[in-house]
From TrEMBL:
Membrane-traversing stretches: 239-269, 318-337, 394-420, 440-463, 483-504, 558-580, 608-632, 688-709
Pfam family, one: Anoctamin
GO BP field: calcium activated phospholipid scrambling
Lineage: Eukaryota, Metazoa, Chordata, Craniata, Vertebrata
Organism of derivation: Oncorhynchus kisutch (Coho salmon)
Signal sequence range: none
Protein name, UniProt field: Anoctamin
Family according to the record: Belongs to the anoctamin family.
Anoctamin transmembrane domain mapped to chain residues: 231-520, 532-731
Domain Anoctamin dimerisation: 10-228
Length: 766
């Protein structure tokens, strides 16, 4: 029997049971799933009884139509909130901070006396406090302690309830039958979620959700600052940090987009004035080009006039400057994001979260085989041997290598498929198919590649989840970091393998006339039905979508960051397209969280986690990638070399880049030209080796210069602003003053936790 629910609803548990109408008109469960439903019913009863024993107030609401839907409304009384607030180190206010918060652009525009069109007055600004960890015996020292109903924030109540739900067993511990997440995966419960705030009719006092919709999620707010403090107040620090990073990244794309557009306009000017382009377009029949494969025909170089000019938009001298600019932009962007992240982490009381405040994961606490004293906090905590974790992590690494190898095998298989299909089409002697052979092979290959990516992504993400759980990481941050690393390595290879092949390998190993290595594929010359208005809030929220975390959101943006840095030499307009996309992305993500997702449990975070390390690695890869792109795929160095040896002009450059076919190329002894630095016998000319030395020297000089300047920027820009360091010291001092008074802090042993929660943690049928 459930106790009547007295306080505000902190959490909702839902499950569904299908009903079938028998001939006599009575309702009875579907007999085919009787055994499964019985086991689920037993798990639910045991789980709810243990929650009741832990002091959680419960109330059940049942709706019955085509199927039976049961809602259990949960709330934590004051005593439970106080105990777990101390257990999971919740922070509570000591004193209000009166210093206003400004971002860098607000300060800059205010100093130069320019109207700030991005600012907006958002109501109900969450107050800022000096805080410290909650202690029950010092309750009277905290602000607002006289009102038990409002002392803990709504998000903190959600955190306490989720902590209890995540560590409560419902079966045998040896089988891992612990926590609400396992019950959800077993479909014993359909959903578990905190409630969204109820909308109010009074326009003078909007709820926090209504404020976020009005001042953040609407398209009309596209030019305004995001209300980050409101987002943090409603969704927690982890989600707020994502939107802070997304907004910061979008703002920094603006100068990159401007410079990229100027480089593109410089390419347009070159289309009109470039000497080699004019030589190609005016050559007519001067340069008869050799067939690009054994079954291809001769063609005139002048036929690619338009294509060559279009290539100048992306391959010109400005591209080198832009590549260096983007490499330094990426380094500077990350350094200033570290500063912004440090400011936000301090403002939101997360500066020391990972080092001292983050508690073990509830699932880890319930299943760890032993305990050990924490050397930092002095508290006795669950422990998993490092050697066993290392062995499991090593095994997981081997699985990752195997999966990455599978991805590369599929990439090679698709390339081979395109070549074979082109050959088959050319040998079919069908004029229409032969004309479209390249398009057919490319289109079908792309579709196959997409299907492979989608299929392998599903398999790999599931495998990564299983491996990461098996590795038994202590904290949620470490767990998520290892999961993200596994999946990102796979997705990096999955998404970037095709662009790398196209940029560096495609069409570069076909040989020369009379000695083709393989048959080439040729050259192309030219919501209704929702709940009713009088539905209860838990029913309305149940109809919303499940928020599955921030992994997909971060992945999308980090992959985009990779494309605009690693391959920026191939497309200077990439930052502009990314900027436009992100302006839309911010509002779309905001609408999803405010209007379409169930409210997620608020999570604390100190920064964006391992994503920052991934961004730094991408920055290093981008420098090397752009160096090789410019050196080996661009005409920049050959043009410089020719200018140096030809009195500074490019007259005759096209002829310089073309080789002449061997005399025995065909029976008619017809000479033709091809792209390459070879003589009539097919041997490389001296210029080829001179250029090769220049290319390698360019790569070394380019990456050394960029890395040196990047290190210099890193040295000159401190990760934590000086004023934030002073505020942190001030807060530490105030916390000691508030909690000292001859207090000798003793660690809470795990035995005390077990004795207080014996009714929760006692295993069933173990």
């Amino acid at each position: 029997m459930l106790i009547p629910h007295l306080g505000p609803t902190d959490f909702v548990l839902v499950w569904e049971e299908s009903l079938a109408v028998l001939k006599d008109g009575t309702l009875e469960k579907d007999k085919s799933s009787h055994a499964i439903q019985d086991s689920h019913r037993k798990w639910r009863e045991d789980f709810l009884s243990r929650l009741q024993a832990a002091g959680i107030d419960q109330e059940m609401v049942i709706l019955q139509a085509k199927k039976k839907i049961s809602y259990v409304l949960l709330s934590a009384p004051w005593s439970v909130l106080c105990y777990y607030a101390e257990e999971i180190s919740l922070r509570v206010p000591l004193q209000m901070v009166t210093t206003p918060n400004f971002n860098w652009s607000e300060r800059m525009l205010e100093k130069i006396k320019i109207l700030n069109l991005m600012s907006q007055d958002v109501p109900s600004m969450p107050p800022d406090y000096y805080t410290c960890q909650f202690r029950t015996n010092k309750l009277e020292r905290f602000l607002g302690s006289e009102n038990k109903e409002t002392f803990f924030k709504t998000t903190q109540r959600h955190q306490v309830l989720y902590e209890i739900l995540a560590r409560t067993p419902y079966g045998a511990l040896k089988r891992g039958e612990v926590g609400i997440e396992r019950l959800l995966s077993e479909n014993a419960f359909s959903a578990a979620y905190p409630l969204h705030e109820v909308s109010v009719v009074d326009s003078q006092s909007l709820s926090m959700r209504q404020i976020l919709h009005q001042y953040w999620a609407r398209w009309a707010s596209w030019k305004n600052y995001q209300p980050l403090d409101h987002i943090r107040e409603y969704y927690g620090e982890k989600i707020a940090l994502y939107f802070a990073w997304l907004g910061f990244y979008t703002g920094w794309l603006l100068p990159a987009a401007v410079v990229g557009t100027l480089v593109f306009l410089f390419g347009i000017w070159l289309m009109v004035t470039d000497v080699p382009a004019r030589e190609i377009c005016e050559s007519k029949d001067e340069f008869v080009m050799c067939p690009l494969c054994k079954i291809c025909s001769y063609w005139n170089l002048s036929s690619i006039c338009t294509t060559f000019k279009a290539g100048l938009l992306f391959d010109n001298g400005g591209t080198v400057f832009f590549s260096i600019f983007m490499a330094l932009w990426a380094v500077t962007f990350l350094e200033y994001w570290k500063r912004t992240s440090a400011v936000l982490a301090h403002r939101w009381d997360c500066s020391e979260f990972q080092e001292t405040e983050e508690r073990p994961r509830p699932e880890f606490t319930a299943t760890a085989p032993m305990t050990l004293r924490n050397p930092v906090t002095g508290a006795e905590e669950p422990y998993f041997p490092k050697r066993r974790r290392f062995n499991r992590t090593l095994t997981g690494g081997m699985v990752i290598i195997i999966m990455v190898s599978v991805v590369l095998m599929f990439v090679v298989a698709i390339i081979v498929y395109r070549v074979i299909l082109s050959i088959i089409i050319y040998k079919s002697h069908n004029a229409f198919l032969i004309f479209s052979a390249g398009r057919i092979a490319s289109l079908t290959g792309s579709v196959l590649n997409l299907l492979v990516i989608l299929m392998l992504s599903r398999v790999y993400i599931y495998l990564a989840q299983v491996l990461t759980r098996w590795e038994m990481h202590r904290t949620q941050t470490k767990y998520e970091d290892m999961f993200i690393l596994k999946v990102f390595i796979f997705q990096f290879v999955n998404f970037y393998s095709s662009p790398v092949y196209i940029s560096f390998f495609k069409g570069r190993f076909v040989g020369y006339p009379g000695n083709y290595y393989k048959d080439s594929q040729g050259y192309e010359k030219v919501k209704e039905g929702g709940p009713t208005q009088d539905a209860a809030p838990w029913e309305t929220d149940y109809e919303l979508l499940l928020c599955e975390g921030l992994f997909d959101e971060y992945l999308e943006m980090v992959l985009q960051f990779g494309f605009i840095t690693i391959f920026v030499a191939a497309c200077p307009l990439a930052p502009l397209f990314a900027l436009i996309n992100n302006w839309v992305e911010v509002r779309l993500d905001a609408q999803k969280f405010v209007c379409q997702y169930r409210r997620p449990v608020a999570e604390r975070a100190q920064d964006i986690g391992i994503w920052l390390d991934i961004l730094q690695v991408i920055t290093y890869v981008a420098v090397i990638s752009n160096a090789f792109l410019i050196a080996f795929t661009s005409d920049f160095l050959p043009r410089l070399y020719y200018r140096h040896n030809n009195d500074g002009n490019l007259q005759g450059y096209v002829n310089f880049t073309l080789g002449t076919s061997p005399s025995n190329f065909n029976a008619n002894n017809t000479q033709c030209r091809y792209r390459g630095y070879r003589d009539r016998n097919g041997h490389f000319r001296p210029e080829y080796f001179h250029l090769l030395a220049c290319r390698l020297a360019f790569v070394i000089i380019f990456e050394h210069v960029v890395f040196f300047i990047g290190r210099l920027i890193d040295f000159m820009v401190p990760d934590i602003p000086e004023d934030v360091e002073i505020k942190i010291k001030r807060e530490h001092y105030m916390a000691k003053e508030a909690l000292a008074e001859n207090e000798v802090r003793t660690p809470v042993p795990l035995s005390r936790y077990l004795s207080v929660n014996r009714s929760i943690n006692q295993p069933i049928n173990q």
